[in-house]
Amino acid sequence: MSQTCRIRVRESERESFKYSATFVWEESDARGTPLVPADLYAEGDLAVYLEDWGADVGDIIALLESLKSAPSGEISIVMPDERLEVLSSQPR
User: Whole-structure pTM over 0.90, yes or no?
Assistant: First the structure.
């Protein structure tokens, strides 16, 4: 079983970074994410980060295009249970 979640991307509040990516869980009973927001330098870093989490390349390109004219955007990914178990076992 897997859980669907979204990754919300917006301008980073930390200087020298362009984007901040945060997980948004869709299931109401999902545990809070053990992940802190990721701050990324530019489009290339963001694309690699999203692809590492299993986002579709076409969806990544669409998100990058939308971020040119919007302050934030989201992309959906499916998080396999195996990865959730690893993430939930990491210290916060």
Answer: no
